[in-house]
Design a protein that fits this description.
The structure is a single chain. Helices cover 40% and strands 0% of the residues. By secondary structure, it is mainly α. The chain has a domain of 126 residues.
C-alpha cells in the first residue's frame, strides 16, 4: 500500500486493509459499499433494522442523588469490543444456552446449497432457518476474531505500538459508516 494513498483517518483505513487481506487469504470475495449502509445485494432496502441504529453516546452520565450520597463509580469501557470478540464463544453459555456447540462463533459452515435450502432433488426448501443471519456471518466473524487475536498477540509479545493503535481504533472502525468493509 503506497504511503501517499493513506487518507486522513489512516487507522480506520488500515483496519480495512488488514481485514481485506485477512478475508482474501481466507477465500472471501471482497466488497466495498460507497454508501453509509452496507451493500447486501438489494436486501438492505428490506431490512428496517439498519435504520434503527442509535448514535453512539459519547458521554453517559447518571446522577441519582437518593441512591447513595457518598459513592461515585467511574467505569471505563474502552476495551469492551475487544473483550466481546475474545469471549464470543461464551455468549451462548451466558445467555442460558446448551454449550458452545450452538454459539454463533462455533457453528459449522454450511455449503451454499444448504444455506439456500436446496433439497436432494434440486428444489428449494422453505425453511426460515436456512437464511439465519448468524450462520451467514460465522466465517467472516472468525476471520475478524483471528485478526484481533493477532493484534493482541503482537501487543503482548512484542509491545508492538502499531498493533496497539489498531486495537484502540477497532471499535471506531467497526462502528463507522465511513469504513469500507
Amino acid at each position: 500500500m503506497p504511503i501517499g494513498n493513506l487518507p486522513d483517518d489512516y487507522p480506520a483505513y488500515i483496519c480495512d486493509v488488514f481485514f481485506a487481506r485477512s478475508l482474501k487469504r481466507d477465500g472471501h470475495v471482497l466488497w466495498v459499499s460507497p454508501g453509509t449502509r452496507p451493500d447486501l445485494g438489494g436486501q438492505e432496502e428490506d431490512d428496517n433494522r439498519l435504520m434503527t441504529d442509535v448514535e453512539d453516546m459519547r458521554k453517559l452520565e447518571m446522577n441519582e442523588p437518593t441512591a447513595a450520597t457518598h459513592v461515585c463509580v467511574d467505569i471505563s469501557l474502552e476495551s469492551l469490543p475487544i473483550n466481546a470478540i475474545q469471549q464470543s464463544s461464551h455468549i451462548n453459555d451466558v445467555e442460558g444456552g446448551s454449550g458452545g456447540s450452538v454459539s454463533f462463533d462455533a457453528m459449522p459452515q454450511a455449503t451454499m446449497d444448504e444455506m439456500m435450502g436446496a433439497d436432494a432433488l434440486g428444489g428449494m426448501a422453505t425453511s426460515v432457518t436456512s437464511f439465519d443471519e448468524t450462520a451467514q456471518c460465522t466465517k467472516v466473524f472468525r476471520v475478524m476474531k483471528t485478526m484481533v487475536n493477532s493484534w493482541l498477540g503482537e501487543v503482548s509479545r512484542y509491545k508492538n505500538e502499531y498493533a496497539d493503535a489498531q486495537l484502540l481504533h477497532f471499535y471506531r472502525w467497526l462502528k463507522s459508516s465511513e469504513s469500507l468493509l
